[in-house]
Amino acid sequence: MTEARWPDSRRVPTARPAPGTPCWVSLMAHDLAATQEFYAQLFGWTYRPGPQQLGPYVRAFLDDREVAGIGELPADRRLPIAWTPYLASDDAGETAEMARHCGGTVGVGPLDAAEAGRMAIASDPAGAVFGIWQPAEHLGTAVAGVPGTPAWNELVTRETAEVGKFYRTLFGYTEEASGDPDADVLTLFLEGRAVASVHGVGNELPRDRGAYWMTYFEAADVDAAVARVVELGGRVVRPAREGAYGRIATVADPEGAVFTLVHTERSCQEPVRTA
């Protein structure tokens, strides 16, 4: 197990997020109705329509506050399903162009999402997919620190040096390496606040999957949430276990989207790593 700095997960944006801030998570699924039902049963989410530029899309809510987004892929797009973090930008077009210049790829956009903002979907030089979000009316996730909300985002990649430079150039992050000499882990900071981490796992990264971003969701009881995932047709990727700062488990929804359940202690300022 490795460690990285992690902020108070209860902090939520009240103004336009600084560029590079993970501000939203979104999932593109094959069966939107079934996916909505899975997460409603697991996290208690309710839904309202969102921007439809990429097809059917809903925003998930907890107590009338936005948490995440779920969209539906076209029937002929049989793509792997994954949760995607969106990183804030003051200019999505400029950030997308910089991503290309730094060795990344832009797969979608930039395009307007109605009055909500402007977005693009890109991948870093290692292939990990992330979103770029230029906020307008929609600032991002509006609640944190309660069950069913995003708690953290971690990039899992083969090694941190190249992708660390990519994100540092793109968003101006500062970095802090783990104190463990055997761990290739970076914490990314904006304005002195930890916002995400990069975990180099070497040959442990499956070659058929490639680098990816992992989204952590808060759970009141990780073991109970894992059992509920299985009841609802999902599966366990890594069983529930104790870490240095809490209990975590990695699971997948019925379509295969992998995410991590975590129960964070209110006094804890550090995350539990996935490996």
UniProtKB/TrEMBL annotation:
Q: Which InterPro entries match?
A: Anthracycline_SecMetBiosynth (IPR052164), Glyas_Bleomycin-R_OHBP_Dase (IPR029068), Glyoxalase_6 (IPR041581), VOC_core (IPR037523)
Residue ranges of domain VOC in the record: 21-135, 149-264
- List the CDD domains: SgaA_N_like
**Looking at the record's lineage, which domain of life comes first?**
Bacteria
Output the Pfam families linked to this UniProt entry: Glyoxalase_6 (PF18029)
- Record's PANTHER family? CONSERVED PROTEIN, GLYOXALASE-RELATED
- Name of this chain's protein: VOC family protein
The species is: Streptomyces spectabilis
Upper lineage is: Bacteria, Bacillati, Actinomycetota, Actinomycetes, Kitasatosporales
